[in-house]
C-alpha cells in the first residue's frame, strides 16, 4: 500500500447484549456443541466447559475471627509469661522442669533459653503447676516425718508384766526419797550453796592429768567406773576389754571373747570385787553380740545374741542392777531381765539406728538417742514414749540423766549439747560446746553440779549446771576423744581416745 492510497475506515457496528454475559456465553457454547458438555447429577458443583461453579462458599469473617482469636491468645500467653517470676538459678530452673516432667535441657539450649521455656510452660499450665507438685512432695515429707515420730508398741510376754510391776515397786519409793532430798536442799541458805559452788569450781579448774595410759594396741572406744570408783573398765577396737585399778592404772583383768570391735561396756552397781560367778560387767560388740562378765574369770559367763548381726553401740545397767538396756543399730533398743534370764522388751520407735541409752536415777524412765537426730524418753512401767526430743540437726551420740531426775543432756553430731527439762517437756538450753561432733556426755553422779562433754576435736569440756558456762577444757589427747566417765565420788574423770590411750584427770 502506497502513501497515496486513501485509507478506508470501516465503522464496527455497535452490539448490544441483553442479560448477563455468563448466560450469553453458555448459550453460545450450547449452540456450538449441540448438547451439554457435562452434567453432574447429584453433584455439589456444575462444570460447563472450563468454568466451574459451586454452591460451597468460604466464610471469610469466621476465618479471620479465628486467626484474630489465636493471635490474641498468643499475645496474652506471652504477656502472662513475661509476668511470671522464675528463679535465675539454673539448677532451680532444671529442678522445676523436672517437676513438670519436662526435659531439663535441649541440645544447644542455654540457661536463658531454658528459663524462657519454663516461663512459657508455666504460662500454658498455670503458675500453680509447680507449687502443686511441691505440695505433693511436702505431703510426702510430712508423712515421713510423722512416721519418724510415730511409736510402735508390741504385745509383750508375761515376763514383761512381771518386770513392769517390779519396776513400779522399785522406782516409786526412790522417787519419793529424791523429792524429799530436793526439798531439803531448798532449805539450805543461799550463802552455803554459793560457797559450795565456788569450792567445786576451784576444784574443777585445778584438774590436771593424773595418769595417761596406753590402754591397747587399737583405739579405745569406751570407759566406765565401778560403783566405788576403784576400777575402770575400757574397751577397744582390738576386741578386748580391760579392767584397770584407780588411780595407779595397773591392769587388773583382761576380758577376752569378742571376735570384733567392742563399742559398749558398763559396770553393774553393787557388785563386790571379790564376788565369784556373779554378773559384774557387760560389753557390746559391732557384730551384735553382748557378753556378761564376772570379776573371777576372763571368760564370759553368759552371751546375749538377740541383736546379731546389728551393732550394739551402747548399753547401760538399770540402777537396780536387775535389768540391762542395749541400744542397737536395727532401730530398736531392748531391755533384758537378768533375773528372769530373758528379753522382756524389744522397743522400736526410732527411724534410724539407736546409738545411746541412759536410765534415770529412780529407775522409772530411760532415754534413747538415735542417728535420726531425735531422742525419746520411755516410761519403763507403762512402755509409753512420754517425751520426744526434737531439736538437733544431726545424729545424737550421747545422752545422760541428771541426778535431779528431770534434766537430760544430749550430745550431737551438730557440735551442740542440749539440755532438756522432763517436767516442761521442752529444751532448756543449747550449749555450742565443740568444733566437731560430740561423742559422749556425762553428768556428775552425786549431785549433777557439772556436765562433761567429749568431742572429736580432741578435747573434753566441763560445764556448770546452772549457767552452762565453760569451767575447764581437758586437752591432751592426740586424736578424737571417744568417750568419758565421771567417778561416783567425783574425784576422777576418765577420757578415752582414738590415740589408744586413756587419761585420768584429778584435782591437783
UniProtKB/TrEMBL annotation:
Alphabetical GO biological process terms: mRNA splicing, via spliceosome
Q: Give the molecular function GO annotations.
A: U4 snRNA binding; U6 snRNA binding
**Ranges of Basic and acidic residues compositional bias?**
23-34, 134-149
- Keyword Zinc-finger assigned: no
* Gene3D superfamilies tied to this protein: Pre-mRNA processing factor 4 domain, YVTN repeat-like/Quinoprotein amine dehydrogenase
The UniProt entry, under InterPro entries, shows: PRP4-like, PRP4-like_sf, WD40/YVTN_repeat-like_dom_sf, WD40_PAC1, WD40_repeat_CS, WD40_repeat_dom_sf, WD40_rpt
Q: Which parts of this chain are annotated as the region Disordered?
A: 20-41, 129-151
Name assigned to this protein: Pre-mRNA processing factor 4 (PRP4)-like domain-containing protein
